[in-house]
Amino acid sequence: MRQEKDPFISIVLPVYNESAGIGETIKELANYVRARPERYELIFVNDGSTDDSADQIRAAVAENPTIRLVDFSRNFGHQLAITAGIRYASGDAVVVMDADLQDPPRVIPEMLARWREGYDVVYGKRRKRSGETWFKKLTAETFYRVLKAVTSIDIPVDTGDFRLMDRRVVNVLKQMNEQDPYVRGMVSWVGYKQVAVEYDRQERTAGKTHYPLRKMLHLAMNGITSFSTVPLTIANWLSGFFLLVAVVTTFVSLLLGRLSLLTWVISATFFVGAGVTFTIGLLGNYIGRMFAESRHRPLYIVADTYGFKTQAAQQTHYRYHALQN
Ligand code: UDP
Ligand code: MG
Asked: Which of 100, 145, 158, 169 is placed for a possible disulfide with 204 were both Cys, Cβ 3.0 to 4.6 Å?
């Protein structure tokens, strides 16, 4: 059980050209905050909108002291908007949600309840997705399952960025300075106690999705390449296959006594192919290692320590990076 009395909760909302719906979102969240016993801040991150979304939020900032705006110089993308919002948040827990009310605020109390039970990450798992095309649902479902198959960390399926994170998870995320972050994967990677809360994803209140196929593919590639080096090892598998073909063709032609020029050329081609793909695979392994190093992820994260007498050791669960140095 968490002991925080009078907890402070940050809600982070990335905003990109939500002019038609942002007023409704602000109103709904302001009502939500008013009705709740916890203290809140609402952090809108304007991701370079070209409409009047930022103006609408600025007007709300002037009226409502719980509302804040982080205004990007241009469009940096959904994942970086979330990253920035998390960094500006000062809550004991941080909730990330869409600015189009697709993630309903009424789920937040449920998340808070799990947080109070001691969970560090409470993620929203989509039971139903209203108002989205079968194409989007199918591609999203397929992608989540492919990602799960190629990564060693447990990234939950059918889960977007709607989630609550405890301060200690947020503190780790703030240390992860990745260029092209796949935030939901990073949160899974951090570990601690994570749990799902199921909810029905709503239709957008207004406007349309800013995730066209191009951006979805980019996000999907990002998810795979930042959490899996399996694609780099494809060459290794190919080389094994080529070698097998080369050996089999050589033996078969030897056994059948048909050592024509053609069979030799075929075997030789596969031997050379096996050699080439083997060396490419070797490069892939080294590149994978360099890639892992270049992300500068913490080596490990200590959740708690017990029985240590020194103060330094007791602090390691927030200062995990001190252990690396
Ligand atoms: N968004 C953003 N930058 C972008 C695209 C989207 O900040 O480049 C915001 C958008 O305003 C919304 C959230 O990210 O609050 C999710 O985007 P969207 O609703 O378009 O995606 P979908 O829910 O359709 O997957
Ligand atoms: Mg949305």
From this structure: 100
Nearest C-alpha neighbor of 78 from the set 212, 210, 265: 210
| Furthest-apart CA atoms within the chain: distance in Å | 90
Is the beta carbon of 21 within 6 A of some atom in ligand 1? no
Output the CA–CA distances (angstroms, integers) from residue 234 to 102, 220, 230, 272, 294, in the order listed: 38, 18, 7, 17, 22
- Whether the CB of 85 sits within 6 Å of ligand 1: no
| CA of 242 relative to ligand 1 center, distance in Å | 44
Q: What is the pTM of this model?
A: 0.80
Q: Please provide residue 162's backbone torsions phi and psi, each rounded to the nearest 5 degrees.
A: -75, 105
Measured in Å, residue 106 CA sits from the centre of ligand 1 at: 20
Does the beta carbon of 81 lie inside 6 Å of ligand 1?
yes
Residue spans of alpha helices (H) in the chain: 19-35, 53-63, 78-88, 108-117, 134-150, 167-175, 183-190, 213-227, 234-255, 261-294, 311-314, 320-324
**DSSP per residue over 185-226, as a string?**
HHHHHH-SSEEEEEEEEPPPSSS--S--HHHHHHHHHHHHHH
Q: Which residues contact 293 (CB under 8 A, 6 or more apart)?
A: none
The Cα 98–Cα 82 span in angstroms is 10
- pLDDT tens-digit series, residues 73-98: 999 999 999 999 999 999 999 999 99
State the closest ligand 1 atom to the C-alpha of 76, by its place in the atom list counted from 1.
8
Q: Report the C-alpha gap between 27 and 34 in whole angstroms.
A: 11
Q: What pLDDT, in 10s, does the model give residues 266-283?
A: 889 999 999 999 999 999
What is the spatial distance between Cα 87 and Cα 313, in angstroms, rounded to a whole number? 26
